């Protein structure tokens, strides 16, 4: 996505954006009151300062890497390799027909060794993403504690060199903890979706749709509305031990700033089954509605507004025990809906 030099706007520096609010004194008992009820990103400094991994990282990055390799189950993982000319930005190739990186299966300790050997701006960048701690660092489960989530969701670990993940959203709420190195989180509220120029929904670098804007060097000729997104943005650098709460579906880009970086995150959702995740339903809705004539689409817009986005949607005419999916969805009802949806989609 080359652009002429005069179209670049380095003045849109991420470090000039305001930082999310920092919050302290958060406990499991006041977590909703102090954090989740506000529906905005919040920073929790020194959240994991007591983790042994973080304490190793504060000694040195090599000490953090040694701490991990000594406790690694060493299963093969997908090592992503980004050529030097990508500047570590996970993105598409020039024709948007594939990706700008390659991947190979490597034992996890070998992948870490490769990362440690690659610390030059002129070399390839590497990362291993979204590794379940329970499967690959099982002895760390008792150390990577998160007292805010009870029962705590199982954590994932992310390892890499100086890599940038473009702005994307998660389908679940997220607490992300920097365990080694340093990372910059840049965030945009969900209503900025139009101004972020989201790429293909069904061809993505890592499963979630991404913004096509290069936040480090935005091209306002190609993406003029990004100027509005920037005005609504937040950005913060987090050190080892710091954490950030990111509500779904806030857009966020993450840039790793050290030669070796480790992130641990926890996702959680009120959804009972995978079929309740919003993105698959969005893709199915696009498939269902895009072929319709204008009048029919407008009619369905009214239906969606009525059933999904009307806070005063009347239900008094239906007995509470008969409201089904419109009422309190139990795990049993959710599983039944999952089976019904699967049957409908497989007809």
UniProtKB/TrEMBL annotation:
Domain JmjC: 118-283
SUPFAM superfamilies named in the record: Clavaminate synthase-like
SMART domains noted in UniProt: JmjC
InterPro entries in the record: Cupin_8, JmjC_dom
Name of the protein this chain belongs to: Cupin-like domain-containing protein
Organism whose genome encodes this protein: Arsukibacterium tuosuense
């Amino acid at each position: 996505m080359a652009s002429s030099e005069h179209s670049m706007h380095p003045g849109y520096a991420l470090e000039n954006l305001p930082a999310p609010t920092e919050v302290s004194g958060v406990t499991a008992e006041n977590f909703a009151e102090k954090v989740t009820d506000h529906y905005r990103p919040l920073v929790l400094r020194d959240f994991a300062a007591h983790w042994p991994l973080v304490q190793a990282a504060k000694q040195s990055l090599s000490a953090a890497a040694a701490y991990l390799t000594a406790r690694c189950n060493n299963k093969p993982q997908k090592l992503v390799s980004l050529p030097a000319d990508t500047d570590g930005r996970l993105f598409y190739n020039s024709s948007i027909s594939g990706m700008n990186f390659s991947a190979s299966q490597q034992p996890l300790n070998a992948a870490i060794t490769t990362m440690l050997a690659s610390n030059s701006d002129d070399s390839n960048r590497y990362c291993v993403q979204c590794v379940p701690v329970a499967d690959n660092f099982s002895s760390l489960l008792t150390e990577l504690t998160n007292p805010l989530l009870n029962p705590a969701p199982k954590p994932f670990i992310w390892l890499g060199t100086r890599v940038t993940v473009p702005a994307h959203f998660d389908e679940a709420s997220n607490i992300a903890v920097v365990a080694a190195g340093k990372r910059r989180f840049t965030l945009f509220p969900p209503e900025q979706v139009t101004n972020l120029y989201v790429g293909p929904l069904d061809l993505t670098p890592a499963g979630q749709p991404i913004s096509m804007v290069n936040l480090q060097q935005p091209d306002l000729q190609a993406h003029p509305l990004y100027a509005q997104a920037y005005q609504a943005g937040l950005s913060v650098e987090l050190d080892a031990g710091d954490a950030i709460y990111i509500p779904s579906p806030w857009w966020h880009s993450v840039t790793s700033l050290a030669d070796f970086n480790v992130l641990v995150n926890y996702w959680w959702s009120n959804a009972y089954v995978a079929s309740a995740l919003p993105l698959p339903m969005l893709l199915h809705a696009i498939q269902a509605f895009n072929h319709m004539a204008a009048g029919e689409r407008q009619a369905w817009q009214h239906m969606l507004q009525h059933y999904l986005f009307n806070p005063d949607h009347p239900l008094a005419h239906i007995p509470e025990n008969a409201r089904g999916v419109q009422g309190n969805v139990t795990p049993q009802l959710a599983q039944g809906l999952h089976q019904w949806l699967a049957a409908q989609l497989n007809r």
